[in-house]
Amino acid sequence: MANLIVVGSQWGDEGKGKIVDLLAKEAKIIVRYQGGSNAGHTVITNRGTFIFHLVPSGILYRGKLCVLGNGVAIDPGGFIEELDGLIAKGIKVGRNLVISHRAHLIMPYHKAIDRAAEEAKGARRIGTTGRGIGPAYVDKMARIGMRVGDLLNPQGFKRKLEDNLVEINSLLRHIHKTNGFHVDKVYEQYMGYAQRLQGYIADVSLLLEKSINQEKPILFEGAQGTHLDIDFGTYPYVTSSSSCAGGACTGTGVGPTKIDAVLGVTKAYTTRVGGGPFPTELIDEIGENLKAKGQEFGATTGRARRCGWFDALLLRHAVRVNGLTSLAVTKLDVLDGFKELKICNGYRYQGKLYKEMPEDLDILANCTPVYERYPGWTTDTTGITAYKALPAQAKRYLDRIEELTGCPIDMISTGSKREHTIILKSPLVSKKKTSKSRR
Ligand code: GDP
Ligand code: IMO
Ligand code: MG
Q1: What CATH number did the domain enclosing 358 receive?
Q2: Residue nearest to ligand 2 atom 5, measured at CA
């Protein structure tokens, strides 16, 4: 039995959905703890391709409980659409889904502010997903947020909405020169959502405690990634939530002593969507190759992902700030056929060598990566499920990732399907030693 946090170790899209779906088989509860429908988690099974934005990636199994914790920002309209999409595909959605009374709601004005603020930033824009995430968390921190529980109290909901719209409409009309929102229209729309969602609302912390007492394993599904975290990411080019492992506790109401292990998901190379520094980015043919072979287009916005070499500094930072107990390395198959592979193990900036992630964004934006070179492999690794079947060069590459990060690899993903995975050890058991002995 173990309660496991699955967290992105890079800039998101590491393949968390695939890994969570796979591990969900062994868990009882799968819970999202932060972010919102900015996330796009892809799961491919013999029932088809699913892209989850808010619904946890465990929903495809029967007998599992899927939960949205208080740390999630819920766009109720998008959420209902997602549920309807699943129901249309024959997936059971009902008593197997719970949303926290304390979770904050994304309001239509959050999306409007998100778009307008990005436009106003011009070249310095973050490249957000436009889902209203930043403005919703701003309201949460400003203590004027609308919460899921407010949907159950129509009068209170309307009063809060009226108060909020005074300031927000002024901001939209006078600063952003765009349209404001009408109280009654938003109220009616959200009361419609309330009808549909009221049956799912519960005290998530209490529910998870019961499960912990019964020793039922909980899987915490991180969205985004370590370097998009509001505190530990490449601020300000980040999202507005705590995507690191710590967010799993504050985002669900489970204490840190109840967490057994933290699995970091990382691609065998690096990608990023949106703006911000990316030292190992490849703006050349190799980068284009990675993009084409890895199908690197965003699951939420369809935007092309920027691609680059694996960066050990990003990972060492992720191991530290999340307390990672093991790694899942995904998309190894995408590296098939590259003559030479590079791993960044330092940044050079103004004559100084950095071996750890610099906190200063200017350094990150202007440094030169220092690379180690490794021979590639020519054989096809797609779908390999046994470690011993990997080419020697791939094993060497993976060994070096373990050495440079100081973190054992438990899982290696060799394709987008559920079964395209090498499982060296189930990360649902915590441990610290390296994985070489397990091969
Ligand atoms: P998430 O946001 O971390 O869940 O990741 P996304 O779903 O946004 O992006 C990961 C993409 O890579 C998806 O299209 C997955 O189907 C795909 N994927 C995951 N693991 C592998 C793998 O090992 N090999 C290949 N080729 N594709 C993978
Ligand atoms: P998953 O869970 C990759 C990025 C956006 C932008 C920045 C801020 O699928 O890994 P936001 O809309 O959150 O205010 O945008 O964060 N971003 C992601 N990038 N994967 C994600 O989620 C992301 N969610 C947000 O591109 O740069
Ligand atoms: Mg994604």
Answers
A1: 3.90.170.10
A2: 128
**Alpha carbon of 276 to ligand 1 centroid (Å):** 22
Ligand whose nearest atom lies closest to the CA of 303: 2
Question: Does residue 142 sit in the same domain as residue 218?
Answer: no
The answer to whether residues 262 and 325 touch, using CB atoms and an 8 Å cutoff, is yes
Asked if 56 and 66 touch (Cβ cutoff 8 Å), the reply is yes
CA distance 339 to 331: 17
Which of 134, 247, 215, 208 is closest to 428 using CA atoms? 215
Top mutation candidate among 228, 232, 306 for ligand 2, by most atoms within 8 Å of CB: 228
CATH number at residue 148: 1.10.300.10
Q: In the beta sheet, which residues pair with residue 390? A: none
Nearest ligand to the C-alpha atom of residue 223: 2
Best residue for ligand 1 mutational test, from 331, 380, 385 (most atoms within 8 Å of Cβ) = 331
- The alpha carbon of 10 and the centre of ligand 2 are apart by a number of angstroms equal to 11
Name the pTM for this structure: 0.97
Note whether 159 and 195 are same-domain residues: yes
Helix ranges (DSSP H) in 171-327: 183-197, 204-213, 246-250, 285-293, 312-322
> Do 376 and 414 reside in the same domain of the chain?
yes
Residue range(s) defining the domain that contains residue 231: 4-81+205-423
| Atom of ligand 1 at shortest range from CA of 8 | 3
> Is the domain of 418 the same as that of 312?
yes
Min mean pLDDT across 13-27, 255-269, 359-373, 416-430 is at 416-430
In the predicted structure, residue 408 carries a pLDDT above the cut 90? yes
User: How many domains would you assign to the chain?
Assistant: 2
Query: Same domain, yes or no, for 127 and 233?
Result: no
94 domain residue, yes or no: no
Asked if 41 is an active-site residue, the reply is yes
Task: Encode pLDDT of 339-348 as tens digits.
Answer: 999 999 999 9
Positive or negative, the CA dihedral 248, 58, 412, 285 is negative
